[in-house]
């Protein structure tokens, strides 16, 4: 059955089209290769460059994790959600632009710029996710969330193709631009794409649910946050889900952020890696929609189980991977479930939390995910350095998916968030 989407829903989903360019070009594809080459030029070994990237990811995710709950609590005050979204959105744009300005030889500055841009992207996503309860109804969240991810894969493919084209033309000396400058242009393109196509979200999405503003904003927000942590045990479904999410999304995020560096460690050519990652974007788009539709026929939690099982297979296969064909197979496995597990997790959580505290709860959603993401990249980094082999680090992630799967089975199906639960202030 065809679903007609509202203007607010379309605008909200379109932000995935805009922001996902950062995820594929900066987080996953171009930046890790660019950074790896910069580190190599400075005499840093492959294993150490991968480890330093892992440590950087751990540091900036720790910063976001500390900020998210308090900022989410403050953003639940009526009229504040968009202000916080715009603040982090602007930080992310500026951080991305800085990557185009930092000298290629300054690999440490590149990591700093990457951290700033990632803090902006991650922070903006906390409030973007929080808007889900403002733009649609619980019964439509699976479809809206999944379609947003699908648009993200499709939309990000366009600047990704343009970026790859620039880099390949430069590598083959078909344009009068060096490979380094072509990569810088890719970062510039990412910032422009992200900024331009975020305008519908900025113009058409407004906060509907929220709490009244109280005197002493920061102090009262701290009290509300403390109250929510104390009451979280009463939201049994949300609390248990957050524990499960913390583990399995850790594995997902680590694989996304470090997959290209892992491929480089295996000796795969940069061009081959970029082509594979583009294919992931193409395949992931319809699968994200498929997960959303299947979640209308089967429980959303069941489809999350399916995605976790796929990722367990990914970790196992990655341990034995050593050729480009292996990397292709691994990438296609990831493409089938990468968008689905993220979209359905966001929608599932959105249905079991109180709407008037959506940003606060999505701040907790983010902190559980972010604190987990400190462990994943650090785990890969430590084991990679200790063994000198990246595949051992990736394989270690399997335990996170197993724990997440088990805890998810403990989430009570009958409990949902209540807007009427008493709030202690």
UniProtKB/TrEMBL annotation:
What membrane topology does this protein have?
Answer: Multi-pass membrane protein
| GO terms for MF | transmembrane transporter activity
Q: What is this protein called?
A: MFS transporter
Tell me where it resides: Cell membrane
| Organism phylogeny | Bacteria, Bacillati, Bacillota, Bacilli, Lactobacillales
Q: Which Pfam families match?
A: ATG22
> PROSITE patterns given for it?
MFS (PS50850)
According to the record, the segments passing through the membrane are: 12-35, 55-72, 84-102, 108-128, 149-170, 182-202, 237-261, 273-291, 303-321, 361-386, 392-411
**Alphabetical list of SUPFAM superfamilies matching this protein:** MFS general substrate transporter
| Keyword Coiled coil (UniProt) | no
């Amino acid at each position: 059955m065809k679903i007609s989407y509202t203007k607010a829903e379309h605008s909200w989903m379109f932000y995935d089209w805009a922001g996902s360019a950062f995820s594929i070009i900066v987080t996953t594809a171009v930046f890790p290769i660019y950074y790896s080459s910069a580190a190599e030029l400075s005499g840093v070994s492959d294993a150490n460059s991968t480890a330093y990237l892992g440590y950087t990811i751990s540091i900036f995710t720790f910063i976001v994790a500390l900020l998210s709950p308090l900022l989410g609590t403050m953003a639940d005050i009526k009229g504040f959600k968009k202000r916080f979204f715009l603040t982090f959105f602007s930080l992310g744009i500026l951080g991305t632009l800085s990557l185009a300005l930092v000298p290629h030889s300054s690999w440490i500055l590149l990591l700093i710029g990457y951290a700033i841009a990632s803090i902006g992207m991650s922070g903006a996503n906390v409030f973007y996710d929080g808007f889900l309860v403002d733009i649609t109804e619980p019964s439509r969240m699976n479809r809206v969330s999944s379609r947003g991810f699908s648009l993200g894969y499709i939309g990000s493919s366009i600047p990704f193709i343009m970026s790859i084209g620039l880099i390949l033309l430069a590598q083959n000396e078909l344009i009068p631009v060096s490979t380094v400058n072509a990569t810088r242009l890719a970062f510039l393109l990412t910032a422009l794409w992200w900024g331009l196509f975020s305008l519908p979200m900025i113009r058409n999405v407004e906060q509907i649910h929220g709490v009244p503003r109280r005197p002493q904003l920061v102090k009262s927000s701290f009290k509300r946050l403390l109250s929510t942590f104390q009451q979280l045990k009463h939201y049994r479904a949300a609390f248990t889900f957050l524990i499960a999410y913390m583990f399995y999304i850790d594995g997902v995020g680590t694989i996304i952020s470090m997959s290209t560096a892992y491929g480089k460690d295996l000796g795969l050519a940069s061009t081959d890696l970029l082509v594979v990652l583009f294919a992931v974007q193409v395949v992931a788009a319809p699968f994200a929609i498929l997960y959303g539709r299947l979640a209308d026929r089967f429980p959303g939690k069941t489809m999350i189980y399916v995605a976790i099982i796929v990722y367990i297979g990914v970790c196992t296969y990655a341990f034995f991977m050593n050729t480009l064909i292996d990397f292709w197979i691994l990438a296609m496995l990831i493409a089938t479930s990468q968008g689905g597990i993220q979209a359905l997790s966001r929608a599932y959580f959105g249905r079991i939390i109180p709407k008037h505290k959506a940003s606060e709860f999505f701040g907790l959603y983010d902190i559980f995910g972010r604190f987990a993401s400190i462990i994943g990249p650090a785990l890969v980094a430590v084991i990679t350095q200790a063994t000198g082999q990246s595949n051992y680090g990736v394989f270690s992630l399997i335990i996170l998916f197993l724990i997440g799967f088990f805890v998810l089975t403990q989430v009570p199906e009958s409990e949902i968030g209540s807007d009427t639960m008493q709030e202690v202030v």
